[in-house]
Automatic annotation (TrEMBL):
NCBIfam families registered for this protein in UniProt: argS (TIGR00456)
PANTHER family tied to this protein: ARGININE--TRNA LIGASE, CYTOPLASMIC, ARGINYL-TRNA SYNTHETASE
Domain Arginyl tRNA synthetase N-terminal: 3-92
Family: Belongs to the class-I aminoacyl-tRNA synthetase family.
Chief place of localization: cytoplasm
Protein name (database record): Arginine--tRNA ligase
Species lineage: Bacteria, Pseudomonadati, Rhodothermota, Rhodothermia, Rhodothermales
TM spans (from-to): none
Length: 572
């Protein structure tokens, strides 16, 4: 509906007299909002106010000219009115509401799907946690955001691949192997020398100062001891310890994600970027050098990002503009494999979307510069950056630290508040805002808890349908939907018919919280309808129409919750 109206507004703008020669009505963005006050109509746009300067006339005059010339379907739009300094208010026709409700009921589980991106492909990379320990609460927000954005893209027509970048190379993996080896040695030869770390923790003498300390490290070490006895004491390097830890931790990560309702379509192993002739990472370096965009200095390889517009200092170099790709030790920085990986993703999809924590803000622009320098389309790469999560219990923050094992894991969180609540709470705020996860609210069975509020509304409608069926009413039967004329009925229908546009908006903005907020509006509108309009006990035609409206509400709630990855219970 909004797209059709926007096109009609642009056509009316193009028909205005005495337009400037350089004015292109087709290029005008026409955005609609739902007014807070129903007396202002069903949709409103301030496009006339935005065009006052380029058209060199008053907003009111522009709005009046559009209202006089706009061509709309009278069965869908009852009126286009001018209000205030130049707002255009649109009022729907009753026939539009009736037809829209019938369409909703017919489409059912597919209602809300739009074909904006049919035939296009997308890779959404998310979680991609280093396999060095259980998933934390922060990883949980990443997982839920990425998974829900992938769902939204799917609902707008994309063929989506959900991808996990398995970071199985680099220093952290070596530290993981060293941590397991030290614990293994202590298991098979107890009583060996120990040392005390800065925070007072006593560990085996060979344990790295920045090693991983969680109980899972000891569990992996014990499993190796059970399988091999002391045969690995003479292992020439950490490889068997690293591999065992990788496999155990990654299996646990996948199990945790599955519990959260997240299932990946593919896993990309970082080590493959170092394989082949030439290996992709070293091919990046050589190609940049050949184009005078990389050079060697002090034993390190630098990316000449200063030539590509970088102006800030991130690496401590004298000029503050160039970026280290390979350290003097020969070890690549994160940017190098990331550049190679993104080039690979671009070869496989029309859209590449990454979900990163705020700690990536400093690095990903260099990755995009590298992609551009190597001929990739960086405009096809989008990055959703999310802020971190603080668990709050009794008004006090819960401390979290991966290496010190003082964190609360994602599994712990789900065990305490449930999978549905975990997912929804991660989606309640915009990704770019810090999230305080209130554990007390999350466990509250009241309308204050938004998950309870939505799921209860869905279960309540299911109960209404069961009771109505017992009285002989059938929501699947024919009914004259035009009898739904009560103010609360019309308000609910108007809210439900916004769902496809809300899906589109949330998908285009990569903003699942917008859909979460809308679903609460749906539940609120339904509660007002059910308060004001009886179903069971009315004459059959009206009761059946109202029952169909209740079913339509349940459809929108269920479809929306499905996109968010939250269940829609029939009973509570």
């Amino acid at each position: 509906m909004e797209d059709t109206l926007a096109a009609a507004v642009r056509a009316a703008l193009a028909a205005l007299p005495d337009l400037p020669d350089d004015f292109d009505a087709e290029a005008v963005e026409v955005e609609f909002q739902t007014p807070n006050d129903p007396s202002h109509g069903d949709l409103a746009t301030n496009v006339a106010l935005q065009l006052a300067r380029p058209l060199r006339r008053s907003p009111r005059a522009i709005a009046e000219g559009v209202a006089e010339r706009i061509e709309v379907d009278p069965t869908r739009v009852a009126a286009v009115e001018v209000a205030g300094p130049g707002f255009l208010n649109v009022r729907f026709a009753s026939a539009h509401l009736t037809a829209g409700l019938a369409e909703l009921l017919e489409q059912g589980a597919d209602y809300g799907r739009v074909a904006d991106h049919d035939g296009e492909t997308a890779i959404v990379e998310y979680v991609s946690a280093n396999p060095t320990g259980p998933l934390t609460v922060g990883h949980g927000r990443n997982a839920v955001l990425g998974d829900t954005i992938a769902n939204l893209l799917d609902w707008t027509g994309y063929k989506v691949t959900r991808e996990y970048y398995f970071n199985d190379a680099g220093r952290q993996m070596r530290v993981l192997g060293q941590s397991v080896r030290a614990r293994y040695e202590a298991v098979v030869r107890p009583g060996g020398p120990t040392k005390t770390l800065e925070d007072g923790l006593e560990v085996p003498a060979s344990f790295p100062d920045d090693g991983y300390r969680g109980e899972y490290i000891t569990d992996v070490a014990q499993a190796l001891a059970d399988a091999h006895g002391d045969a690995l004491l003479d292992a020439p390097d950490e490889a068997p310890f690293k591999e065992a830890a990788e496999q155990a931790v990654f299996a646990e990560i996948m199990a945790t994600l599955k519990r959260l309702g997240v299932e990946m379509d593919s896993t990309f192993n970082e080590r493959t970027l170092y394989e082949g002739d030439p290996a992709p990472v070293w091919d990046v370096v050589e190609t940049l050098k050949a184009n005078d965009l990389a050079y060697e200095e002090d034993g390190a390889v630098w990316f000449r990002t200063s030539a590509l517009g970088k102006t800030d200092s991130r690496d401590g170099d004298e000029e503050g503009k160039d970026t280290v790709l390979v350290k003097s030790s020969g070890e690549p920085t994160y940017r190098l494999p990331d550049i190679a990986y993104h080039l690979d993703k671009l070869s496989r999809a029309d859209l590449v979307l990454d979900v990163f924590g705020a700690d990536h803000i400093a690095t990903y622009p260099d990755v995009l510069r590298g992609v551009t320098a190597l001929g990739g389309d960086a405009d096809a790469i989008e990055v959703v950056v999310y802020q971190f999560v603080t668990l709050v219990r009794g008004g006090q923050p819960v401390k979290m630290s991966t290496r010190k094992a003082t964190y609360e894991t994602l599994d712990d969180l789900m065990s305490e508040v449930g999978e549905d609540v975990t997912r929804f709470f991660f989606l309640m705020r915009a990704p770019g805002t810090h999230l305080e996860f209130d554990l007390d609210l999350a466990k509250e069975a009241s309308e204050k808890n938004p998950v309870f509020y939505l799921q209860y509304a869905h279960a309540r409608i299911a109960s209404i349908e069961r009771k109505a069926e017992e009285t002989g009413l059938d929501a699947s039967g024919d009914a004259d939907l035009s009898v739904l004329s009560h103010e609360s009925e019309e308000a609910l229908v108007k809210t439900l018919l916004q769902f496809p546009d809300e899906v589109r908006t949330a998908a285009d903005a990569r903003a699942p919280h917008k859909l979460a907020t809308f679903l609460r509006d749906v539940a609120t509108a339904f509660n007002a309808f059910y308060r004001d309009c009886r179903i069971v006990g009315e004459e059959t035609e009206l009761a059946t129409a109202r029952l169909k409206l209740a079913r339509a509400t349940r459809t929108v709630l269920k479809n929306g919750l499905t996109i968010l990855g939250v269940t829609a219970p029939e009973q509570m």
